Amino acid sequence: MFRALWFDSRVRAWWLQGLLACGAVGGIVWLVLNARENLMRRGITVGFDFMDQAARFPISESLLAYQTTDTFGHAFVVGIVNTVFISVLVIAASTVLGFALALARRSTHPLITAIAATYVEVIRNTPLVVQLLFWYGMVTVNLPSARQAYQPLPGVFLSIRGFMFPKLAVAGNSTLFWGVVCAALLFVLAVMLAKPVIRKHWKTRLPMVSIAIAMAAVAITAVLLSGRAVASWELPYLRGLNFTGGMAFTPEFSALLIGLVLYSAAFTGEIIRGGIEAVGRGQWEAGRSLGLRPWHIMRLLILPQALRIIVPPMTSQYLSIIKNTTLALAVGYPDLAFVVATTINQTGQAIEGIVVLMAVFLTISLSVSLFMNAYNRRISLVQR
After folding, report:
1. Mean pLDDT, to the nearest integer, of 190-207?
2. Same domain for 83 and 25
3. 333: CB partners within 8 A, 6+ apart
4. Considering the domain boundaries, does residue 143 fall inside one?
5. What is the pLDDT of residue 3?
6. What is the value of pTM for the model shown?
7. Measured between alpha carbons, how far is 279 from 296 in angstroms, rounded to an integer?
8. Are residues 121 and 258 in the same domain?
């Protein structure tokens, strides 16, 4: 019996995988216990009890409310939200700018092609941290003071204090309003993802996404008309030496956003251009023979086929963007890495801080990978 099991390739593979897994788990357990013992010998406490203690350090900007009397755990949450926020903005902006670069690289105009090619080569061959420091210097040194701020549009100001612009202020039951807004956005996203299934089972050609957007707009309008929440635009205005009201992007945030977007766009542009170039020229000729305009050919024929080539490498690029946000330390933006570094300096809990940092980035990266892989399976030719 054992001889038959040993010569069964599947059983043998499972046994080998099990032994390898046990060895890996055993090695990790040994490292943890050994590190714990050595730290205890030196009088260094181990554990996450410090999370309930007051942080006692400021965070210059955050989407969540934060005070120095809040706990280290809350400070970590603030850092995570800041990291996710900048990552989402950079991914969205670099994808749009990368698509424009891809089209510029494929342009028949020699000047546009040369400018796009020069931009890509310069950005891709310059260290990211150098670019971040360059943009931080541009923002903090070359922009005017608040009293002489540039005003390209009404209610929009650009100065050494940062980028100020109007924000949507909600009075009354703001929780209800933002809850409805989030539910409406999730509903529209769900309809966009489920559109092929809905059309297949219901045999309908109705514009499902447009209907979903209209229903979301009606729900938000109903909340405003009910009087339980009142929304208005809050404009920034100069008060003393700084601006008050509205929303502000600080110089640190602005430098990080500009640097990461311009750097990432050079890579996403080449990925998108490669996917477009991989589609056969016969598809362009077929579109022209049908009388389609170049943009319609790109949108209806080329991009749907190019996405199958673009999505896999774009997943890796998105993960690189998320990990590159840790360079926010270079310009002073308080992301998760900043909070972890400050916490380690104050508490000495280096191992715990690094574990939290690794666990958070691992969770974010795996979530992005799962989403992109699901989308890749959805657009693939062979459905599994």
Report:
1. 72
2. no
3. 61, 82, 86, 250, 252, 253, 255, 256
4. no
5. 62
6. 0.80
7. 15
8. yes
